[in-house]
Amino acid sequence: MTAEAAGERAVIGASITIRGDVTGDEDLVIQGRIEGKVDLAQHHVTVGANGRVKANVIGHSVTVEGEVEGDLRAEEQIAIRKTAKVRGNLSAPRVTLEDGASFQGSIDMERKVAPVPRGSQPAAGAGAPSANPIGGGTPASATPPRPGEQKRPERIG
Fold this sequence. Notes:
Elements: H1 2-7, E1 9-12, E2 17-23, E3 27-30, E4 33-47, E5 52-64, E6 67-69, E7 72-80, E8 85-87, E9 90-91, E10 94-97, E11 102-104, E12 107-108
Parallel strand pairs: 1-3, 2-4, 3-4, 4-5, 5-6, 5-7, 6-8, 7-9, 7-10, 8-11, 9-12
């Protein structure tokens, strides 16, 4: 199966220059030049030691050994090797910068998931206060009344 997996990888050779968008359904090794966009969101993208990329690169994981001028985004991981020169922003849950790598940009390591509002109500309430004056509309973050304080619920706002 290893030989088969290796066959699922395209290589852009050192003498090849591509101007435009690069998409596909297999892993990609770039040893040549690309200017445009590389979008292989479900696959591994490697910019080899001879690779020169002026493009935003999107991959499941991205490894850079050569030069990239553009933003890198990966669903899993970005690895910037010691031989790399990168000018652009990195966005991935895991980012590795090896000692000796040249990097200029920002790093965003937040995992991209749909945000869930704090203290959110079920869809029927959609966050609106309940019409029920006793309980029901009190947010989870509300402080319970201290003993001896007012006994009836009061709405603020």
